[in-house]
Amino acid sequence: MKMLMTVVLLSPMSLTQAAVNPPDQNLLIQHYSMVSGRDGVKRETTFTERVYRRNDQVWTEREIGNGGAGANRSGAADEHDHSGHNHPDAGSSPMWVRRQADGSLDARLIERHQRRTVKVDSQYYGNIGFNGDWGSTFYLSDPQSLKNMRAVGPVKDGVQLYESKRGELTVRVGWDVKGQYPRRVESFDAHGSARRQTSVSLIAAPPVLPWKTLAGYAEIDYSDLLD
Known about the structure:
- It contains three helices and 15 strands.
- By secondary structure, the chain is mainly β.
- A hairpin with a 5-residue loop joins strand 2 (25-36) and strand 3.
């Protein structure tokens, strides 16, 4: 998400503005991670997601196979079957998160093959790999977290670079000031044995926003699917 550049002060106004007036965005997110183990084996992972954010809701969907995001997949790709219960696969199932008026979140996994939405209460967020934080869900990197980083150099091509170092770990965020999302997030250790990189680009809005295609879907609770 080199050469040392001049460190400048963070702009509290830009962070406050991000929380008050966030723009709608349609984003393509490319993830890459690499870990080199003590056994000498290097393991690399890549995947791509599409994110659509509008005011108080965010839709995140991983691209699967040649069908891409939104393609119909077999039930085996969407869920696991354990002892007669169908468990949604949080990796391949789209996730729809809405922020309620009281600040609480309504998080749902979408199972197109089953034509149902699965509401996940906060006590089960860990089961699906969701941190429950609206800031990082909506902005991908919470603008408030930038306060704990240092701004490196001036804004260039609309991007402010932030950096933090903790022990042997370095994190860099290239923040799109106008768009209010990270164009790039990178973290790596001093030994080169681990690296994570996220690249974000703008895409066209879909003809119909995905949460508007859920008419007729059943609604169930995640807890009903547990053994």
